[in-house]
């Protein structure tokens, strides 16, 4: 099933020169001097203030301070300053957001809520330029030429629909305009291991500007990363078991024929050729050392994809209109040693292929047009997903093949409005009607039989949201909200034994939240606090099929809840010095889940009660503490402390990850057109696992990254 993939390298030299001229008629020398002094004071004040960020979290432009929900926003400069290169990095700087990262997927966990282990969908929505990335395997892209990233916490069902029951991440890429801008960069890094690898390289660049001034613009961006990785296969002395080879590109064409029209076409492509050698035994006779494996079988992880987005925006006299047409393609092929040892047992071969075509049309009120701001929209999509699972075994009696085809069509009608009373009280109500039609078919081939079954599903959901916000002053806003989200039902691609356990139903969450957002001391301090309670109904879980050895099914058997608090602080006490802090506490608990489990000790099926257990992959707390200094001379320095609290990897709470902390450092020089930054990640080489499972009576784990250090040079123009 492997495909031949074309590879290309980014190369070339980018250069540009621009000049700005201006003149002022002076009435007198004294007046000119006074004017210059006033301008210096204004500039100094603006540099001293924390930036105001405009977001589109609620699908219309507004100050993030005015959004009545917990939202973390990262501008392009903030991403660069913190060294955030992908979603995994991003989650470490966001309170109560955690990524369960492994070669089995990229599960984003908001406030302790995640999908069951083998789900191909996430409870968190993920969007790039307003187009959905449906599979969680797509949720850890490389960041390059990004305008900002918005992290929305809590259910977002009203505006985003299915599979946004815990939160949403929005990535907004940079758009070309009349300013000619660009950069090229090169980076070298090295993992601090004893494997003798040759390091990691990353290079890329971007350029954008006008083709026809005020009318037509173009932007091009690309990035290539090549790394040995930090894993070694001790069986064959291969120090590239976890290699990384990523190629990404994006092109943007923008047309503004008049002041009212803004039309953008975006195309992107990605091609990865990685290693999958990460899982190692933590216990038992096959145990290996940190960052070491002993595989005799397959070890590859190849991803490729492309996408196109057509965005048409019209600003009218009465309302604004936006049309978004999106297409995305993603294919992932992965082969791994089944037993993760040097024994000749067999391999697991997976392929996930997804095609999505979507259309969304929004009509909204003009900005600041009156006390009532509103938005209404239509959304439709068609999605085809194929999953091929080939269990290759030396013992032919154990060989199995599952091929699953899932076709999903859906549409939605949604609207949300905010009415302001007395210029202080903001009342918001929203509603979405979401409809899904699903068709699933599975072919199951074993050594002695072949089965084929199919089943259709359809769901109709109503997803409301209500919020109340009050401005005590221009700088202090408090809010309370309630919202509903859901994780769609679907098909079991690897557990089903027949049509009776081929499907499962949706999972629902209700989020209750109160919070306050403040900006104090002339915008030198920003502080946001929120408290939440989430009720989880019909939770999707994995259970044994009673009486059938080894057989499992996906059911909606559990009820649970999550509650906690989030605090984010940002301060600039003096010009050039930034202090950043975030803290999130989450308490999760299973309220009701009693099922039948197989007891290996008695070799019997027995009743098991999960009630009172913590939800898996839900850290009790997360935090980030950072200090950054940027001197007028160009010197730059930053230190970050990133913490994760205790949590369990499994529903039985038998696989625990203890709390750990990571320290990152960055320092260097930033000139007008040239930067050089020295950096170190995980400075104290903290040991931790990003995944653990029970396997053959022992524990199998996925090591976190070791200490890594390097240098990055950037030329801007």
Look up the CATH topology: Maltoporin, Chain A
Strand percent estimate: over 45%
CATH superfamily: TonB-dependent receptor, beta-barrel domain
Number of domains: 1
Total helices: the number is 4
Query: What sort of overall outline do the alpha carbons produce when their principal axes are compared?
Result: globular
Terminal Cα span: 44 Å
Q: What is the total tally of β strands?
A: 42
Biggest pleated-sheet summary: 22 strands, antiparallel, barrel
Percent helix, as a range, is under 10%
Which whole number gives the mean pLDDT? 91
Per CATH, the architecture is Beta Barrel
Low-pLDDT ranges:
1-46
What is the gyration radius calculated from CA atoms?
A: 26 Å
Structural class given helices, strands, pairing?
mainly beta
CATH class: Mainly Beta
């Amino acid at each position: 099933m492997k495909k031949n993939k074309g590879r290309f390298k980014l190369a070339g030299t980018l250069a540009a020169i621009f000049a700005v001229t201006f003149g002022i008629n002076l009435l007198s020398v004294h007046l000119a001097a006074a004017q210059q002094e006033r301008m210096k004071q204004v500039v100094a004040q603006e540099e001293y203030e924390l930036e105001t960020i405009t977001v589109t979290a609620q699908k219309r432009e507004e100050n993030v301070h005015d959004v009545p929900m917990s939202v973390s926003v990262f501008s392009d400069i903030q991403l660069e300053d913190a060294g955030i290169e992908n979603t995994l990095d991003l989650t470490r700087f966001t309170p109560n957001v955690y990524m369960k990262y492994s070669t089995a997927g990229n599960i984003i966990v908001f406030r302790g809520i995640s999908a069951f282990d083998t789900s191909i969908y996430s409870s968190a929505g993920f969007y790039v330029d307003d187009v959905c990335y449906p599979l969680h395997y797509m949720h850890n892209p490389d960041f390059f030429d990004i305008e900002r990233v918005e992290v929305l916490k809590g259910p977002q069902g009203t505006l985003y629909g299915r599979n946004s029951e815990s939160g949403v991440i929005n990535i907004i890429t940079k758009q070309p305009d009349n300013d000619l801008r660009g950069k090229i960069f090169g980076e070298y890094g090295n993992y601090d291991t004893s494997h003798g690898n040759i390091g990691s390289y990353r290079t890329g660049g971007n350029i954008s500007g006008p083709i026809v001034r005020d009318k037509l613009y173009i932007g091009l961006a690309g990035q290539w990363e090549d790394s040995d990785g930090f894993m070694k296969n001790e069986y064959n002395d291969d120090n590239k078991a976890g290699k990384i080879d990523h190629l990404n590109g994006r092109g943007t064409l923008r047309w503004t024929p008049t002041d009212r029209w803004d039309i953008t076409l975006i195309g992107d492509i990605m091609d990865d050729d990685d290693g999958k050698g990460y899982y190692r035994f933590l216990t038992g006779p096959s145990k290996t050392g940190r960052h070491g494996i002993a595989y005799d079988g397959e070890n590859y992880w190849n991803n490729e994809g492309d996408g196109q987005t057509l965005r048409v925006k019209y600003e009218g006299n009465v309302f604004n209109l936006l049309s978004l047409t999106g297409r995305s393609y993603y294919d992932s092929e992965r082969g791994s040693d089944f037993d993760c040892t040097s024994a000749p047992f067999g391999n697991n071969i997976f392929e996930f292929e997804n095609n999505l075509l979507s259309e969304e049309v929004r009509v909204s009120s003009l900005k600041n047009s009156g006390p009532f701001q509103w938005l209404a929209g239509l959304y439709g999509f068609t999605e085809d997903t194929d999953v091929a699972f080939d269990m290759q075994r030396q013992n032919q009696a154990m060989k199995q093949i599952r091929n699953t085809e899932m076709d999903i069509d859906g549409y939605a009608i949604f609207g949300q409005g905010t009415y302001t009373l007395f210029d202080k009280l903001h009342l918001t109500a929203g509603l979405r009607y979401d409809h899904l039609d699903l068709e699933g078919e599975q072919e199951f081939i074993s050594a002695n039989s072949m089965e084929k079954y199919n089943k259709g599903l359809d769901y109709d959901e109503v997803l409301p949201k209500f919020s109340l916000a009050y401005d005590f002053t221009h700088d202090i806003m408090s809010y309370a909200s309630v919202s509903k989200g859901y994780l769609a039902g679907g098909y079991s691609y690897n557990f089903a034994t027949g049509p009776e356990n081929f499907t499962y139903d949706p999972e629902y969450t209700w989020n209750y939240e109160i919070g306050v957002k403040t900006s104090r001391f002339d915008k030198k301090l920003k502080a946001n606090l929120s408290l939440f309670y989430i009720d989880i109904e019909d939770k999707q879980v994995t259970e044994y099929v009673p009486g059938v050895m080894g057989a499992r099914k996906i059911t909606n058997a559990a009820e649970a809840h999550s509650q906690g608090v989030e605090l984010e602080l940002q301060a600039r006490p003096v010009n050039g010095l930034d202090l950043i802090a975030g803290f999130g506490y989450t308490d999760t608990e299973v309220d009701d889940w009693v099922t039948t489990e197989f007891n290996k000790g008695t070799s019997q099926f027995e009743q098991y009660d999960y009630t009172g257990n913590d939800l898996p992959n839900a850290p009790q707390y997360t935090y980030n503490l950072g200090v950054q200094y940027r001197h007028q001379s160009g010197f730059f320095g930053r230190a970050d402390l990133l913490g994760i609290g205790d949590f369990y990897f499994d529903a039985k709470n038998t696989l625990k990850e203890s709390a750990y902390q990571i320290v990152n450092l960055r320092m260097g020089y930033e000139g007008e057109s040239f930067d050089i930054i020295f950096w170190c990640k995980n400075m104290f080489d903290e040991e931790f696992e990003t995944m653990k499972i029970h396997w053959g009576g022992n524990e199998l784990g996925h090591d976190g990254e070791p200490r890594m250090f390097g240098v990055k040079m950037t030329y801007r123009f």
